[in-house]
From TrEMBL:
Any one GO molecular-function label of the UniProt entry: glycosyltransferase activity
Residues in Glycosyltransferase subfamily 4-like N-terminal domain copies: 31-137
UniProt keyword Transferase, yes or no: yes
Lineage: Bacteria, Pseudomonadati, Bacteroidota, Sphingobacteriia, Sphingobacteriales
Residue ranges of domain Glycosyl transferase family in the record: 183-323
Keyword Zinc: no
The protein's name in its UniProt record: Glycosyltransferase family 4 protein
Length: 371
């Protein structure tokens, strides 16, 4: 069975350009949440009968048409000093093909704004990162009419002037992961080792509950000094096991065998893909109340939302009261790639038909809100 298959009703086929960042291949070989989502969306759009062109690195894989501006993802490319250069080439390549499309869907932050501002083709930008950076206010003041998609309601808060037309939550292929039984008995941490991701909190929770913690995470160059000073010595405890980065295939076993996923973030997380990856495995999540967490989590159903390490420690003792089957059902209801794609397709048709013109922002629909 095609893991991207959906049972949606086909509508008028659109010619869609998906413009991805070039830092990772699509799908990424290891870490890369944005690229993973763009890959899933692209493949589902193709499956639903749309004519999709993907602008991405040359080592990307797609059932659509691939236009590459660099031979491999820039994070793994040797001696790449200036990754912005290839993104400029990507924008130029797009401009030569622009009349081939009905809609342009950017995932490249604000880089393309000067170009898309001059184009007559409808365009939309999904913002995948944090928006509480002071300089961004000036950018969005200069480009007030760019159509923006947020990946959570909380993500929008720092930029009230942004022209957000919808919120669309991320989705995964329904059959990508399957429900696990948690028989491994360990707590899991998945993502990056960085101050905002809270790995130190995760270790405290594990030690306080005398529970094994497995850490599957990458360490960026920018975070290496933090790791050396604050984290490395904590890994010496026999309860703590650092296993490094894992790929998509390894996640099913890693998350499915876990007693729970710890998500002890200390920043306004725009979405938190790992939460729905855990849900797809039926694995409870213990998450700190930051950023998108209250939107993605259903407290006391898919896990526990906590406000402190002490509350997280208490939550570990209550995991047995949660149903892994119900957690999986929540994933299937709210966070599949088919649902995500349908939400985007609705928006594409509205933009192509100019439905959003002169509609007040406050009246724009928000998608995938909890039932």
């Amino acid at each position: 069975m095609n893991k991207y298959r959906s049972h949606t009703v086909k509508r008028k086929s659109l010619r869609i350009a998906q413009i991805a960042p070039l830092y990772e291949s699509l799908p990424p070989k290891l870490y890369g949440g944005t690229e993973r989502i763009v890959h899933y969306l692209t493949e589902e759009l193709v499956h639903q009968g749309h004519n999709v062109t993907l602008f991405a690195s040359g080592d990307s894989i797609t059932q659509g048409r691939l236009i590459a501006c660099v031979n491999e993802g820039l994070r793994l490319k040797r001696n790449c000093i200036d990754p912005l250069a290839y993104h400029i080439i990507q924008m130029q390549e797009l401009s030569t093909h622009v009349n081939e499309f009905d809609i342009l869907h950017f995932h490249t932050d604000y880089l393309h704004f000067p170009l898309s501002n001059m184009l007559k083709i409808p365009s939309v930008t999904t913002l995948h990162g944090r928006l509480d950076i002071p300089e961004l206010r000036d950018v969005y003041n200069v480009f007030p009419y760019q159509n923006l998609i947020s990946i959570s309601e909380n993500q929008r808060l720092p930029l009230p002037q942004g022209n957000f037309i919808k919120t669309v939550y991320h989705g995964l292929p329904e059959n990508l992961h399957h429900q696990g039984d948690g028989k491994g008995g360990y707590l899991a941490f998945l993502g990056r080792i960085s101050p905002e991701k809270g790995v130190e909190r995760a270790i405290k929770i594990a030690l306080a509950t005398n529970t094994k913690l497995k850490i599957a995470a990458k360490i960026d160059k920018a975070d290496f000094a933090y790791y050396e000073k604050n984290v490395k010595f904590l890994l010496d405890d026999p309860l703590i096991e650092y296993i490094g980065e894992i790929n998509e295939q390894q996640k099913t076993e890693f998350l499915g065998n876990a007693k729970a996923l710890l998500f002890p973030i200390d920043w306004p997380e725009p979405f938190g893909l790992v939460m729905i990856e855990a849900m797809a495995c039926g694995t409870p999540v213990i998450a700190f109340r930051n950023g998108s967490v209250p939107e993605i989590m259903e407290n006391n159903i898919t896990g526990f939302i906590v406000n402190s390490v002490m509350e997280a420690i208490d939550a570990v003792s209550r995991l047995e009261y949660l149903s892994r089957a119900e957690i999986r059902r929540v994933f299937e209801r709210r966070f599949t790639v088919a649902r995500m794609a349908e939400n985007y397709i609705d928006m594409y048709h509205s933009l192509v038909n100019d439905t959003f013109k002169n509609v007040p922002r406050s009246s724009m629909p928000i998608l995938n809100k909890p039932a």
